[in-house]
C-alpha cells in the first residue's frame, strides 16, 4: 500500500509532458502530428457546419468560406496556414506553436498577424 502511494506521488510530481520528453519524441514528428490534428479538426468542423446548414445557414456558410480560404492560404504560404490551424483548431499558444514549428515567438506573432489580416480581408470581400 505504501509503495503504491509513493509511486503515485512520484508520478503526480512529474510535469505533464515528462512522458513525452522521456519517450524521445522528435520535434519534427510533433509538428507533423499537430499539423495533421489541425487539418483533421478543420475538416471535422467544416463537415459539422455543413450538417447543420439547415438550422444555421450563416454558421455553415462562414465555416465553408473559412475552410476554402485556409486551403488558398496553404497554397500561398504553408507556414502561415499551419500557424492558423494550430492556433485556431489545436488551441496552441504562440509559444507552443513556435516550439512545435521550431521558429521564434516573434515569427509566429508576425505570421499570425499577417494571416489574420489576410483572412479578414478575404472574408470581407466575400461578404460584400
Number of helices, where a helix is a run of at least 4 consecutive DSSP H or I residues: 7
Strand content: under 5%
**Unreliable spans:** 14-22
Find the count of extended strands (DSSP E, 2+ residues). 0
Q: What oligomeric state do these chains adopt?
A: single chain
Give the domain tally: 1
General description of the model:
Helix content is 81%, strand content 0%. Residues 14-22 have low confidence and may be disordered. It is globular, with a radius of gyration of 19 Å. The N and C termini lie far apart (68 Å). Helix 3 runs antiparallel to helix 4, helix 4 (57-76) packs across helix 7 and helix 5 (78-88) crosses helix 7 (105-127). It has one domain. The chain contains seven helices and no strands. It is an all-alpha fold. 17% of the residues are buried. The longest helix has 25 residues, at 27-51.
Describe this protein with a few key phrases.
128 residues, mainly alpha, 7 helices, globular
Give the structure's gist in a few sentences.
By secondary structure, the chain is mainly alpha-helical.
Annotate the secondary structure layout:
Layout: H1 2-13, H2 18-22, H3 27-51, H4 57-76, H5 78-88, H6 94-101, H7 105-127
Helix pairs in contact: 3-4, 3-5, 4-5, 4-7, 5-7, 6-7
